[in-house]
Structure to design on (450 residues):
DNA sequence: GTAATTTTATTCTGGTCAGTACAATATTTG
DNA sequence: CAAATATTGTACTGACCAGAATAAAATTAC
């Protein structure tokens, strides 16, 4: 049940405005909401679910976030920002092969929880599932995905510059394939594929991508290497 | 609104049981339901939506299918069977490269409608989105995905036998990467990526996969070709 | 110490949800 | 032609939904 005792520890040290102090940290609450939305998706997550996960009552939720959908948008962005930060760190590995390996391992750590609970990716699965009927969610999910494509494309450019990939490779095109594997890992994780099999699939993806000789990108003809 | 006039044409020619004849074809109704579920996902699709899409009233829906979830299960399987049939046909192309090309084109024809409406894949997106809270749906989605993996693995085996892929390639492992691209195409289509970009991505995937020299599969060490 | 302000708890709202009751309809059987 | 049976249409049910009204609480301002 809901425990909403005062948490002074969570309150900012900035000079307090008048009125009853807020008893929860909005950022912490958003993370809790994000977990609830990740499990059930937007439509199937109720206000009762959110209230319980966030430890606040409805008027507090509405006061801080506006509406269920506004909260969802915020939670989705928080999730995306956190994953982007993790992915950026993973891609800093010295070699392209190790960077991809770390990227997929980082993703799987998020997609498959420690206790074996499978959740997949909030962007590629639950947000995209809502995309047909929710233009705003679709636009946001697409922007987030484009951002990840760009992040990986930058690493691909570095691999090309360092001679680890052919100069004929188009960074953005190659990046889409790299990120494509993230999508599939997310789908399979949420469908219940074991971590072991997912790890094997990630290893195979790295082998395929990091050691590829294929020139990739629009305009490149099917020339055999 | 609902038009449920008698359709004698749709009624089986088998000897009719007594009682009022059913005024709709359950198989046709399931397909209509499948379209509705594909758009909105299980939770967000209401009985009103289904009623309207199927052209029948609730008691008819319940009489024929049992419950909303039973109908969903049936619609999901009908979708999966239809896609498997299309995929099997695509994979019959003479060369592995052409088989993959046809596979991805077939998928994109389904994931992006003629009128540009984007829907993605009912299994990999909308069913998987429900998977965490619905064990039955998760198990069904996983079984369907495994089936597609197996279908493609058979084609990979043929490519190996015909010298188009290295003998070191493990069919199932390679198949997962091939199908992985299907998952990503579905996710991106539903997120609004243009058909043009999706086609380019498909072409790149074929180039990467069909011309890969990388030995893939568990146990294969990172030996450079 | 009271007023002003902001937040929170409890209760409630109108609408929607999945599903069902019941009467009417449309057939076959006897 | 009436009975039996299966299906359909209309209206309805209890539960649940997102969201809001109201009073109380907890602060700061004066």
């Amino acid at each position: 049940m809901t425990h909403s005792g005062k948490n002074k520890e969570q309150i900012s040290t900035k000079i307090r405005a008048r009125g009853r102090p807020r008893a929860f940290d909005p950022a912490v609450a958003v993370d809790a909401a994000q977990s609830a939305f990740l499990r059930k998706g937007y439509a199937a997550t109720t206000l009762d679910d959110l209230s319980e996960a966030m430890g606040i009552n409805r008027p507090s939720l509405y006061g801080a976030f506006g509406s269920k959908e506004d909260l969802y948008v915020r939670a989705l962005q928080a999730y995306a920002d956190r994953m982007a930060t993790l992915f950026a760190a993973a891609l800093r590995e010295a070699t392209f092969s190790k960077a991809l390996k770390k990227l997929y391992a980082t993703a799987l750590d998020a997609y498959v929880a420690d206790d074996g609970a499978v959740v997949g990716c909030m962007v590629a699965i639950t947000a995209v599932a809502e995309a047909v009927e929710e233009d705003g969610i679709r636009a946001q999910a697409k922007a987030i995905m484009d951002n990840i494509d760009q992040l990986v494309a930058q690493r691909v450019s570095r691999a090309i510059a360092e001679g680890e990939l052919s100069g004929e490779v188009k960074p953005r095109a190659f990046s889409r394939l790299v990120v494509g594997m993230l999508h599939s890992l997310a789908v399979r994780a949420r469908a219940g594929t074991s971590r072991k099999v997912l790890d094997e699939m990630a290893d195979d993806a790295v082998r395929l991508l990091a050691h590829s000789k294929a020139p990739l990108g629009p305009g490149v003809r099917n020339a055999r290497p």
In short: Residues 79-210 of chain B form a domain with the Tetracycline Repressor; domain 2 fold (CATH 1.10.357.10). Chain B touches chain A through 60 residues (CB under 8 Å). Chain B is about 65% helix and 0% strand. Residues 111 and 146 of chain B are 20 Å apart (CA to CA).
